[in-house]
Design brief:
By secondary structure, this protein is α/β, with parallel strands linked by helices. Helix content is about 40%, strand content about 20%. The chain binds S-adenosylmethionine (SAM).
Length: about 190
């Protein structure tokens, strides 16, 4: 009896390790070749994002390059009635955030969707807010699309990086240490 129990435990352990291994491979290889920061927004600035974005119950909030989904999960805790859309092309991050959003939506009645897509393929015509943490070169490639397709008044909250050819409406200095990431947030309005 004990030996059966032990072998079940060993098999379960092996399966969990295999899943963890595949997950890490997806995360690492999914990020290779990307010309954008791999890291996630520091949790300590999530409150700043919330206070700058001013989301309300009618908002449609897009996080372009949503990573592990922390920005949208945090905001959905604060404003549960808004709609949240994460766009991500790293399969590892996507699996993680999709599973998490499934349970949050089901048990906490939120409206978060996480989708596998690339920046250039998404329809942003219903967006009220867009949140990005992407290098300026990527931001610049999206500027014309934003200017042509976003509803007037759509806000773009960009962490750390700004467009080369468009000035932000407002710039927020988060007064973080000199060597910390994400020290500024730029607010644009289209
Ligand atoms: C710096 S991370 C930001 C993660 C998250 N938004 C956060 O703030 O914590 C940028 C994310 O963009 C994703 N990404 C890079 N290129 C992409 C593309 N073409 N389409 C969709 N997502 C992309 C990366 O996989 C990465 O997760």
């Amino acid at each position: 009896m004990l030996s059966i129990f032990l072998s079940i435990l060993i098999w379960l352990g092996a399966i969990i390790i295999l899943f963890a291994f595949v997950f890490v491979l997806l995360l690492v290889f999914g990020g290779l070749g990307s010309r954008n920061p791999f890291g996630q927004v520091p949790r300590s600035i999530l409150r700043d994002i919330e206070s700058i974005a001013l989301i309300d119950s009618k908002s449609n909030v897009y996080n372009i390059g949503s990573g592990d989904g922390r920005v949208l999960f945090y905001l959905s805790r604060k404003i549960p009635t808004a709609k949240y859309f994460g766009i991500e092309n790293n399969p590892g991050f996507l699996i993680f955030s999709k599973v998490k959003s499934f349970f949050i939506n089901k048990f906490l009645k939120r409206k978060i969707s996480m989708d596998y897509s690339s920046f250039d393929q998404i329809d942003l015509s219903t967006a009220t807010h867009i949140i990005t943490y992407l290098y300026p070169e990527t931001m610049d490639t999206m500027l014309t699309r934003f200017e042509n397709n976003l509803k007037p008044g759509t806000k773009l909250i960009s962490i750390s990086f700004k467009f080369t050819l468009r000035e932000p409406k407002k710039e927020f200095n988060l007064r973080r240490g000199k060597y910390k990431l994400a020290r500024k947030i730029y607010l644009y309005e289209f």
